């Protein structure tokens, strides 16, 4: 089930990435199954087809036929749901208001199923586990947390505390320690380097090798994984700014060049 959910998320992501969403194109493009088969190389074609049709049924992907070939693109509903996949969209574009949100969960006496739901909600909203029963986040999401708990009808006993700066530890050090920001920044720089290097090879050789083709698809998959890993952290809590814009520019430039080779 987890693998199937990831597959559907990747389908939406790749249709958006190369379909015009990330470069703010007013019109998104349609792609055939072969486009998705190549990018989703770790999944069986039958699984990909099933996931695509499920997305079509849910109204997230549009399907048309051209010359008897099925073609797909994101719908406006699919575009809206895309950004919810990545926590990074919650925080990096905003400044920190100086407050930490602490969530205290009384695990004893609460039903395990409800506790599991609470942990999932906290993870989705960008919280990190500090210790058993204690989660924290610098994001202004307390209202969203409250509304989500009410919508899910969760009655587990929890408390939310809003506090100022932590004592005996630097705020940036705290964020870096629990959100592994240095490693993420390093991986984004690696992505930029790999994308730029492959782009130069494409332009220099004027032809596509199997090695270059495989590297292109691996880079796209790496980009998706990195965006999923990147936490929602306000920009003024990050030591070295995560190069999200440069990475997007590098990947989109590579995708544009790859189109010349029919990828």
From TrEMBL:
GO terms for biological process: DNA-templated transcription. It holds the Pfam family PaaX_M. It comes from Candidatus Beckwithbacteria bacterium CG10_big_fil_rev_8_21_14_0_10_34_10. Residues 95-173 form the Transcriptional repressor PaaX-like central Cas2-like domain. This is Transcriptional repressor PaaX-like central Cas2-like domain-containing protein. The lineage of its organism: Bacteria, Candidatus Beckwithiibacteriota.
């Amino acid at each position: 089930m987890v693998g199937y959910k990831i597959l559907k998320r990747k389908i939406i992501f790749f249709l958006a990435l190369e379909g015009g969403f990330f470069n703010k194109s007013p019109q998104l493009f349609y792609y055939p199954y072969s486009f998705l088969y190549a990018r989703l190389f770790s999944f069986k074609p039958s699984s990909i087809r099933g996931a695509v049709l499920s997305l079509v049924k849910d109204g997230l992907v549009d399907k048309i036929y051209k010359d008897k070939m099925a073609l797909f693109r994101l719908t406006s509903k699919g575009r809206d749901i895309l950004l919810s996949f990545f926590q990074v969209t919650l925080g990096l574009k905003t400044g920190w208001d100086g407050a930490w949100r602490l969530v205290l969960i009384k695990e004893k006496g609460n039903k395990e199923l409800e506790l599991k739901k609470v942990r999932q909600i906290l993870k989705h909203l960008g919280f990190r586990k500090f210790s058993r029963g204690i989660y924290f986040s610098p994001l202004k999401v307390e209202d969203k947390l409250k509304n989500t708990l009410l919508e899910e009808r969760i009655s587990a006993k929890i408390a939310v505390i809003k506090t100022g700066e932590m004592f005996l530890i630097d705020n940036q050090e705290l964020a870096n320690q629990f959100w592994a920001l240095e490693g993420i920044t390093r991986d984004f720089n690696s992505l930029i380097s790999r994308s730029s290097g492959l782009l130069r090879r494409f332009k220099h050789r004027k032809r596509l090798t199997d090695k270059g083709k495989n590297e292109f698809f691996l880079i796209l998959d790496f980009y998706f994984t990195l965006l999923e890993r990147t936490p929602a952290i306000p920009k003024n809590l990050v030591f070295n700014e995560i190069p999200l814009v440069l990475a997007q520019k590098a990947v989109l430039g590579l995708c544009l060049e790859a189109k010349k080779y029919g990828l």
